[in-house]
Amino acid sequence: MVLEGKKALVTGGRQGIGRAIAESFVREGASVIVCGRGGRPSDFPDALSWHQCDVADPNQTAQMIAAIGTHDIVVNNAGIQIEKTVADTTDDDWDLLMGANARGVFNVCRAAIPNLNPGASIINIGSISGNVADPGMALYNASKAFVHGLTRSIAVDHGPDIRCNAICPGWIETGMLEAGFDLAKDPDLARNDALARHAARRFGQPQDIANMAVWLASDASSFATGQCFTVDGGLTAASPLNPGLF
Amino acid sequence: MMLEGKTALVTGGTGGIGSAICERFENEGAQVIAADLTDNGGAGTFRPFDVTNEAQIIETFDDLSNSWGKLDILVNAAGIEIEETIENTTLEQWNKIFAINVTGMFLTSKYALPLLRKSDAASVINFGSYDGYIADPGLAAYCATKGAVHALTKAMACDHGPEGIRVNAICPGYVDTPMLQSFFEGDGSGGGGGNIESLQQAVRDVHPMRTYGTPTDIANLVNWLASDEARYASGQLWVIDGGLSAQVQQMKL
If exposure means fewest CB atoms within 10 Å of the residue's CB, which of B98, B194, B228, B235 is most exposed? Predict the structure, then answer.
């Protein structure tokens, strides 16, 4: 158990990647507080504490951190996605998306940093979309690039006591991914095409990201800081142009 | 004219992209040597030049020292491609592509330096590739040579910037050249033996600009980097690919 005695906060952990990270941390011996905008999910394991908090709100975030006290690990996972180009994006879209994905990460880090024990690890969930563009996801892509930049700044400004890294997931199998394929003209064909573009020939599981998070949270990664680690099954190592699939 | 009074040597100067560069340089007022293995009767003064032949490289720059007395622009465009995975690449093939794409760039640049120092605004332009960042299938050794070019470019820029020599790399994406045609026909691409005609619409559609590049597109950027307009540009890798590598892979949904 590599996280024994450590106390962790995971934002946006109701389901998916955040939930997998929180459960993995518990298995590794950490005590874990998960936060989300709503109430405690009915199916939530007893081992996980729940704190209702909208990280886009600086007051709520500060209150939550005050309640948690000193801790060792922060995972900024809370985030939303809006599928629009710049031209179609409204002011409300901006507030909603940048509030959660950019300001939320900032709010949590600002409140948490004075409360982190020496040797602490902050893990931000970025995205491959912060490095290369997904079409029709302009603000989401930009918000993840913000996360990557903030990650480096925190590492530089708050080392050596605090390490800060980002994980950049690729396509992770969640309900959202399947819903996307269901919209395709031929869902099976679309799924096979997408799989062929992954060197791993599969999509990611939330656990794949959680495994990386455990390593970054643990002292095994004590020399890793300021980096964005891509975990995408090889998707972005390949050219977007693959004649074999034409 | 952006290059008036300048002298330039272009390795691979009779190839697909090299020819276009020589033509543009001449149109911009430069004196140009198209240094290559075979003459194509194109722009520039042809000079036999094998980037793996150290004696010939030394002799070439000795001659240029006597005739021009300086070199303002060096374009390292000579390069080959091997369309294989590492498993199917022989040591001989591996050594050959590194000898041309990397060692050839090293040797040419090394012996050009004394003449480049005599220019009051020298510019070296190396040919990298977007394949130095992300992989095309079945091009392993080529991808590796281009990664080496990118690192060499930065190192040369650091070492020789204080001497007034700028060094940059151009990283083209898909450009319509004989090399691209060969890639499409190779087994490694998975193109199934198709040719650029049968694949061209599909290739175009993957690019945000909905087109692939021409040698002229590349020559335009080389010309700018060679000119004094680019006098503060050094040590960079200039990707020019119609937006291709700005995207994640374009799945068909």
Answer: B228
Task: Mutate one of A168, A185, A239, A242 to test the B interface: name it (highest B CB count within 10 A).
Answer: A239
Q: What is the ipTM of this complex?
A: 0.74
pTM as predicted: 0.85
Chain B nearest-CA residue for A240: B249
Q: What is the mean pLDDT of chain B?
A: 93
Say which DSSP state B232 is in.
T
Residues of B in contact with A132 (CB under 8 A): 245-248
Q: How far is B31 from chain A (nearest CA, A)?
A: 37
| Chain A residue closest in CA terms to B188 | A244
Q: Cβ–Cβ of B190/A180 closer than 8 Å?
A: no
* Residue count of chain B: 253
Give the pLDDT of residue B99.
Answer: 98
> Could you tell me the maximum CA-CA distance found in chain A, to the nearest angstrom?
56
Tell me which of A201-205, A225-229, B78-82, B195-199 is least confident.
B195-199
Are residues A241 and B137, on separate chains, in Cβ contact within 8 Å?
no
Q: Do A239 and B192 touch (CB under 8 A)?
A: no
For residue B244, the one-letter residue type is L
pLDDT at B190 over 60: no
A105 given a catalytic annotation: no
Instruction: For residue A240, give the nearest of B189, B191, B248 by CB distance.
Output: B248
How do residues A188-205 score in pLDDT, each as one tens digit? 988 999 999 999 999 999
Instruction: Give pLDDT, residue B88.
Output: 96
Q: What is the pLDDT of residues A54-74, one digit of tens each?
A: 999 999 999 999 999 999 999
- Residue B83 · residue B183 · CB < 8 Å: yes
Best residue in B198, B250, B253 to probe A by mutation, most A CBs within 10 Å? B253
**Topology annotation, domain A7-174+206-231:** Rossmann fold (3.40.50)
Q: Who's near A81: CB < 8 A, 6+ residues apart?
A: A97, A137, A140, A176
